Amino acid sequence: MSAIQVDRQEEEMKQKAQKMATQAKNPIEKLRYQCLQRGAKGIKGLGRAFRIMDDSGDKKLDLEEFSKGLRDFQISLEKHEIEKLFNDIDKDGSGHLNFDEFLKALRVTFEEFVNYYSGVSASIDTDAYFDLMMRHTWKL
């Protein structure tokens, strides 16, 4: 797959995510789509930002750190959406988000994964080459 094809697919993914972000009702979906608008590395970047958000250094985020971090990462959510998002992600009800809770909430759905890779695979000539590319990319 050429760099031009990858760039084109990345741009298509960003545009689709932008459209989906405006239609999303659930704060987790809004966050996920806003990350995907930054391309394939958007969610990964937010995962890195988790460590930066952790002002106290205790490897977990309280609501204040989480809210500030989302603003710093330029995520556009209303205050009530941030509070709902925080409470939805905080599965154990501790009042803090740990890294695992945070990443599990942002995980791309199976349908999103299939849709994205269907587009990628359509531009590849053979199944064997697609398989090789995926194994190399994901180090499988």
Automatic annotation (TrEMBL):
<feature type="domain" description="EF-hand">
    <location>
        <begin position="77"/>
        <end position="112"/>
    </location>
</feature>
<feature type="domain" description="EF-hand">
    <location>
        <begin position="41"/>
        <end position="76"/>
    </location>
</feature>
<keyword id="KW-0677">Repeat</keyword>
<protein>
    <submittedName>
        <fullName>Calcyphosin-like protein</fullName>
    </submittedName>
</protein>
<keyword id="KW-0106">Calcium</keyword>
<dbReference type="InterPro" id="IPR051581">
    <property type="entry name" value="Ca-bind"/>
</dbReference>
<dbReference type="Pfam" id="PF13499">
    <property type="entry name" value="EF-hand_7"/>
</dbReference>
<dbReference type="InterPro" id="IPR011992">
    <property type="entry name" value="EF-hand-dom_pair"/>
</dbReference>
<keyword id="KW-0479">Metal-binding</keyword>
<dbReference type="InterPro" id="IPR018247">
    <property type="entry name" value="EF_Hand_1_Ca_BS"/>
</dbReference>
<dbReference type="InterPro" id="IPR002048">
    <property type="entry name" value="EF_hand_dom"/>
</dbReference>
